[in-house]
Amino acid sequence: MIRLVHAEIFKLRTTSMGWLFAVATVLSTVIMFVVNAVNANSLLKPFAQFVALETHGHGDRIPPEFLARLRSDWQLGHSAITQATTLYTSGQLIGVLLACLLGIVLITSEYYQQTATTTFLQTPRRTRVVAGKLGTAIVMAAASWLVSTVLSVVAGAIFLHHLGYGSQLGHWGVLRAILLNLAAYAIWAVFGVGFGALVRSQLGATVSATVLYLVGASAAGSVFDLIHTYWINQDWVLTLQVIVPEVASTVMISPTKTFTQSPAEWVGAVVLIAYGIVAGVVGTSILRRRDIA
Is 92 exposed, middle or buried (0-12, 13-18, 19+ CB in 10 A)? Predict the structure, then answer.
């Protein structure tokens, strides 16, 4: 098993694909950190300054209901712990997608490069091959998480110290979010391996996964809002959108509610773990039975 993982990692290190994922991890982390830092700089201001910024100095003329919504937004995000968590997990938005795509490539590249037959002849037990790819996906996802987290934590701590809030790393909620972020990376990598086994085409799998991920959260919010408004007017309908993988991973690491009727963090963790287990089992089952000729 260790040799299989080493072989897969060697393939990634000696091809451009591995370096592309590494560069994409760093760039996406930097970009998202800058976005989150700008938001944090605004949200950590006192409410009066926040209103002045949002209304361009015309806070005395805005309707009371709009002012109430601004206060609600400010109360949701003004906590230094909340902003520290967001800053320290800046890489997640794109990072878990990259982990998923890496898992897809590990599987589909065997068919794209027509090496599947050779691979399975050298290692007749296909379950071991799939397990090796799953292990590789998790190891590489963990490495991506580590790089992203080091960049985010170092820059985030400096940023928060500059604002006078300290690093906030002494709070368990912040540390828990960072560790759960690692779990998110690993589970999305496993999900990618399963998805790659399901959709044999490398182009089709990567495009499909990217589109589903990017539109998943926004589409889920719209769909469940419509169901809640026009069909089932119950709060649990809004909570149910946590079944969308992207929503689940966001809920899992967030110390506050990410949307109306957002469930607890452990619910997001359970949902995401379930997706990872199902993807791993389904992917292994498919590859054990699929004709590779």
Answer: buried
